[in-house]
Amino acid sequence: MSSQKSSADPTNRSPKQKRGHERVAILTEAAAKVFLEKGYEAATMTEIAAEATSSIGSLYQFFPTKVLLAEALHVERLRQLNAALVELQSSVGGMRASEIGDAIFTRLGDFLEEHREFPVLAARRDIPKERKATSRAELRGNIAALLQKAVPSIDNDIDLLAALVLELLRIIVTAAYDPDIGGDPRMVTELRGMLRKRLEEAAP
Amino acid sequence: MSSQKSSADPTNRSPKQKRGHERVAILTEAAAKVFLEKGYEAATMTEIAAEATSSIGSLYQFFPTKVLLAEALHVERLRQLNAALVELQSSVGGMRASEIGDAIFTRLGDFLEEHREFPVLAARRDIPKERKATSRAELRGNIAALLQKAVPSIDNDIDLLAALVLELLRIIVTAAYDPDIGGDPRMVTELRGMLRKRLEEAAP
Amino acid sequence: MSSQKSSADPTNRSPKQKRGHERVAILTEAAAKVFLEKGYEAATMTEIAAEATSSIGSLYQFFPTKVLLAEALHVERLRQLNAALVELQSSVGGMRASEIGDAIFTRLGDFLEEHREFPVLAARRDIPKERKATSRAELRGNIAALLQKAVPSIDNDIDLLAALVLELLRIIVTAAYDPDIGGDPRMVTELRGMLRKRLEEAAP
Amino acid sequence: MSSQKSSADPTNRSPKQKRGHERVAILTEAAAKVFLEKGYEAATMTEIAAEATSSIGSLYQFFPTKVLLAEALHVERLRQLNAALVELQSSVGGMRASEIGDAIFTRLGDFLEEHREFPVLAARRDIPKERKATSRAELRGNIAALLQKAVPSIDNDIDLLAALVLELLRIIVTAAYDPDIGGDPRMVTELRGMLRKRLEEAAP
DNA sequence: CATGAATGAGTATTCATTCAT
DNA sequence: CATGAATGAATACTCATTCAT
Questions:
Q1: Among D12, D35, D64, which residue terminates a domain?
Q2: CA of D2, C1' of E3: distance in angstroms
Q3: B94 plus B45 within the same structural domain
Q4: pTM for the whole thing?
Q5: From A131's CA, which of A26, A79, C114, C153 has a CA 20 to 30 Å away?
Q6: Is residue C10 very low, low, confident or very high in pLDDT (cuts 50, 70, 90)?
Q7: Chain D 145-164 residues in 7 Å CB range of strand F
Q8: CB contact under 8 A, B164 and A190
Q9: Both D15 and D58 in a single domain?
Q10: Quick one: C50 and C148 in the same domain?
């Protein structure tokens, strides 16, 4: 249910030494920062390298393409996101429907706050729809698993509910990313409330 | 009394002749199409001109900047959107809370289906936050007015509710824009349901 | 000695009505202003038309080319300049060598102050060298005539002296045009002094 | 530690490798040539790159802007010019007033003959007046220092005299630049003579 | 492997000039 | 003739990517 694929895409040459692993991490974080600040298209490989206090050549050593760099980062974040959901499973046993939504919101909200570049990566227009579908399916699956585990009695519409959670989260992400709206915490409260109600209704 | 261009004024030249008005309309629609297909950043002034079977010079005659072109289109769509909301006012008098949400969803859903480039325009990263706030405020105001008119008894949290409607619509937009998800009409139904419930609760 | 050619270059269609003459004057002055402000290359036909509160089409009606417009203006200014020199002839009879230089400086200084775009026009890189030589020759000739008339005893080197006067004036022009230097009136005094001395020496 | 480019810093990238230094030199000379031939505005970055048998990208690697390229070249020439003046100091001790002017004319004449693009660079309309004033001041200072060293008894008006030298040189430059006039060596002789006389008078 | 130089196709934008109304 | 729309070659500049050292 969770994703355990090795983080190295076959297209990237994977670093052979520890040195390389550190470099990759630094480059990746630099990319995250620049993608967040500038957006995917406006971010330049040169600026990312500079942010990592590394050279263009070095950046290309590990990520032979801007697309591949974005993808690597995206995949990594998805892995972390799914891992967070999986981890949540151990603590939701026996929760009431009204609580599971909150738990998910809280956990994923934390994730998204820490990795604010995530929506930028997810919104890239050149993600092959296939990969997109797969990613969505995996996330939805993990959320569905959570719902299921917490409230075994819902199995009807469970996939739809999972998708709904995802969409509601997307609002929060967007709102949080957009400084104008994000300030109003009542919006999050509202959304949590709506979800809670829906879940209670699904599993009375 | 001319002044085709003048590097110092950041405004679109408005056409003075019939020919000009027609051309502007064609250019605008071409821009809408290309922005939708490619996204704002990847859209090319050259391609837009080509799509309009105009010369690049003609495009720049009326829209001296890519930003200004996008803005003009965005403003136009916002105008239409707000007009639709205002128009809706005349038909909501006496609706029940449970119906007003549906009415809005339907009307705005239609709009968004017809103008699929809207989210692209609205997501541009270079919109000055001030303008963004103003636009949001206007939309929210019109939605609030609708809610108020239909159900005068809600005045508590009416702005928050309006904002909520906007966010839920954003989901639909995004989902509709994203071919993978948009197909599932149950999602829209879900969202409508959630909103209906919330509104009923607000105005029992 | 002075130039009396008709101001209309054969390449320009000359206006047939009074209306046309006014237009031409307005356009010409607008051109003068814009050339002065922006320089020849940076000046645009569009801006010139706007400055004349006229349309591009109208501008092109009278001056079918930017080059032709600049040339027409240049020729007009040269005509005025030469006319001023010719006019001066009637008042220099019997002046001493030490005075004639001052007289020329004063008169031409006035001209250049009133028509500050002159150096811009004269510095255009695309003036055919032939025309350039002719213009210079005419100016030099008129200055030589002045010197001759005032101090008939100088005939040796009179052309060289005339050229010298021209060059010294160029300094003033440049300096006057350049706000940083122009402020210092002592420079003009110096140049006048040097010229006076040289002339006295030439005609003891 | 890279940072090839970064849209926010208005500086030339300095080369870090030997290859880079060579390229910069080639590009600079190519720029000098094209600026001289075409003038600043008409000179094209593409043509400069071609003249240097480099790619346009290489040119921009080191000179991120046409303005910056011109400035770099201008600054370099000013440096050389000032260096020439400073160097001259060691050989003017004890010269007579009548000689120092000639020495300066000769030295700077050589410089200007070798770097004929200099006036083009100096005449650019977009030089910030502040920089212009500074450059002038430095040149004037060096000339003043020369005059002072050679003829310590002049201190009255020394700055004005230095400015005068500069202006007289400007004539030569302009004349030399302008093929029509430059040919006449008597003009230079005249100017030298005038200056000599003025200096003798200043330091009898 | 790291570094940064080299490449060049691609992009927004300008502007003289021509043309339809 | 006036007006302003149409045209498109030309230009500065960008940036992903490749290569030499």
A1: D64
A2: 8
A3: no
A4: 0.89
A5: A26
A6: very low
A7: none
A8: yes
A9: yes
A10: no
For residue B162, give the nearest of C77, A181, C162 by alpha carbon. Answer: A181
Say if residue D9 is exposed, middle or buried (CB neighbours under 10 Å; 0-12, 13-18, 19+).
exposed
- Confirm whether any atom of chain E, the nucleic acid strand, is less than 7 Å from CB of B7: yes
Closest residue in chain A to residue B178, using alpha carbons only = A129
Q: Evaluate whether C68 touches C171 at the Cβ level (below 8 Å).
A: no
Each residue's pLDDT tens digit in chain B (204 positions)?
333 334 457 788 888 878 889 999 999 999 999 999 999 999 999 999 999 999 999 999 999 999 999 999 999 999 999 999 999 998 887 788 778 889 998 998 899 889 999 999 999 999 998 899 899 999 999 999 998 888 888 777 888 889 888 888 888 777 765 666 555 778 888 888 998 988 888 876
Query: Strand E: which of residues 54-93 in chain A lie with Cβ below 7 A?
Result: 54-58, 60-61
List the nucleotides on chain E closer than 7 A to a protein CB.
Answer: 1-21
pLDDT of residue B39: 96
Residue A8: predicted pLDDT: 39
Strand F lies under 7 A from the Cβ of residue C26: no
Say whether pLDDT at C183 is over 70.
no
- Pair (C191, C155) in one structural domain: yes
Residue-level pLDDT at A9: 42
Q: Does D56 touch chain C (CB under 8 A)?
A: no
- Residue range of the domain that includes A36: 1-64
B70 sits within 7 Å of strand E by its CB: no
D6: CB within 7 A of chain F nucleic strand? no
Count of structural domains, chain A: 2
Using a 7 Å CB cutoff, list residues 113-152 of C near strand F.
none
Q: Looking at residue B134, what is its pLDDT?
A: 92
**Which CATH number does the domain housing residue D203 bear?**
1.10.357
